[in-house]
Here is the input.
Amino acid sequence: MRIALKLLTAAAVLGCLASPTMADWNVGDPHKMHFPQLPDLENGLDVLAMTPYPFDPLFGKVVADDWLCTRTGPVTDIHIWGSWLNDEFPHDPTGLPDPGAVTFRLSIHSDIPADPPEYSRPGALLREFVFQPGSFQSQEWGLASEEFFDPNNLDTPIIGTDTRVIQYNFFFDPIEAFRQEEGTIYWLDVSATVAAGDQAVFGWKTSQDHFNDDSVYGDWLPDQPGPDEWFELIDPRTGVSLDQAFVITPEPGTLVLLAIGTAAGGFVCLLRRRKRRQ
Here is the structure.
């Protein structure tokens, strides 16, 4: 009886903790996409993704990558990895460097499948979200020795380096979240904005994991819904196609069920062991 009580208590605790653990995502945690696209910490790049584009404020730059939905339901959690050019973070209102002092524009699009020679790319805008500083969470995730890639700079595409990897965690109200359908491919678009006068430059990290076609980038006027044209992202050093680092995870309710299921499974195993000993 004591063992059962302990396991039920553990299940309750795990259920309570399931929501707070959504503050970040670690390797081995659940996901609801084809597979997590982890950041490439050895040979990766950071692809410039900012609006306005730092070197020409008349237009913005957005980077996008596709994913396959593996479970129907709301997209309530998105996690991406990024870095800042030369490790220079944006600044909070007090002037202190803070990787969270940035506004993110995330959007979800339908898929336009590849039709050679045309490559796949984002289609119709399905949902758009703007995250102001303080409305998302960020944490330093690790270190890497990487180069910073500006695909618009044809003469010198590598414009600097960085070492500090930041994981950004975005959460959506299930009622307002976009509902994805299992077996469907979607695109995630990302663009960052810092305060006027701040010189920090954000890059979305490339992934060590490849899915489907290349990620893409586009240039757009800030008063328009998005780019008119998309371009493949190709590693300027190797000519190999690129993918971006991100993961979409189960909603908190699913994590609670997983936690309770794990505890229940342990309870059954212990009962079997006790019966064998009797």
